[in-house]
Amino acid sequence: MEFAAYMPVWDKLTQAQRVTLASCVSYRTVKKDEVIHHGDVDCMGLLLIRQGQLKAFMLSEDGREITLYRLFDRDICLFSAGCMMRSLRVEIMVQAEKDTDLWVIPAETYKQLMEESAVLSNFTNEMMAGRISDVMWLMEQVLWKSFDKRLAGYLLEEAAIEQSIMLRITHESIGKHLGNPREVVTRMLHYFQKEGLVRLSRGTIEITDEPKLRRLSQ
Amino acid sequence: MEFAAYMPVWDKLTQAQRVTLASCVSYRTVKKDEVIHHGDVDCMGLLLIRQGQLKAFMLSEDGREITLYRLFDRDICLFSAGCMMRSLRVEIMVQAEKDTDLWVIPAETYKQLMEESAVLSNFTNEMMAGRISDVMWLMEQVLWKSFDKRLAGYLLEEAAIEQSIMLRITHESIGKHLGNPREVVTRMLHYFQKEGLVRLSRGTIEITDEPKLRRLSQ
Description:
Radius of gyration of chain A: 19 Å
Oligomer: homodimer
CATH class of the largest domain in chain A: Mainly Beta
Mean pLDDT of chain A: 91
Low-confidence stretches of chain A: none
Number of helices of chain A: 8
Order of helices and strands of chain A: HHEEEEEEEEHHHEHHEEH
């Protein structure tokens, strides 16, 4: 079964645990832009990505967004299974950034397996530690890093993900990602253009001086 | 041994695990204001508080601080044992806010015990889930804060109306007044209590630092 090849600690589970896990997972295909998980409204389970790209973000009462982290092939989204842990009071949204194939692991089954398997529980600890590190890093950025550095870092990250210096992305969506209004993004991008870091045209941002952009981001 | 009475999952550990744990912990007394843990410079271990008060905070390069959470009697500080998990890249500081007695559990021993004990590992997962929830909640406040100001203003208004700093009012009715769910009010009030702004007891909210509450509301 293909799931076995994607599930990180599969080899360290007992035969009985593998059977339990395999029999409860479901396979799902989601379209780009589809919102898969809504805050604490549902508890759909853990999402293991076969192929695609998801983003986890927070949404304010008045509709503002900020991206917490992204999930790529073989990554697992834990917070879509918030009901799994009593102490997890995290209201995030999960949305597909590309067409995505994934497996859903029901929270209840995963929780039961964690209770009997130190291996699975320790693996979950590591995932959680990774996420808390991401979120605390992001908080540092938001609190103490100026917006030009954050925007420069974001453009470099996008270029790395897309393997291209020609980014097809709107100012609006950059703003949502970074938690800033579109106007602020547009203004800073025009400043970057004047500085020779990027070239702007309709619907695209081309990185024209990658080394300088990298120095700025540091 | 007193440690046994403070260690949360002690009853669920095996005799051998108890012996291992008990033989490695050390007892320490720290004075108010002492910085116990410095970012990722050290990996002193987990801190289990017998009596006292610690705060965990982030520090920017230019010396700005933000308190992430506070630790009281019987709480455990996990992030002072960052080396315990590969994925934990969290640079926090821990400082005593009162004279504090605590036990230090070496990270390496704790990690070994977690690897063999699903109970200890799941307990650690719950602690981590609680911390990540705290941090994400705080980030929401930092990004989009408005409710804390509104709640602070509301409490001051009530105190003026009642000519008393002892408010007899339910979280439910505050929620109705401000248009927020009761849970949100309760959570913010607990945050206020940790910050020393109010003292909560059954059916009452006592304002304990009126000037600070007023500054917050502005």
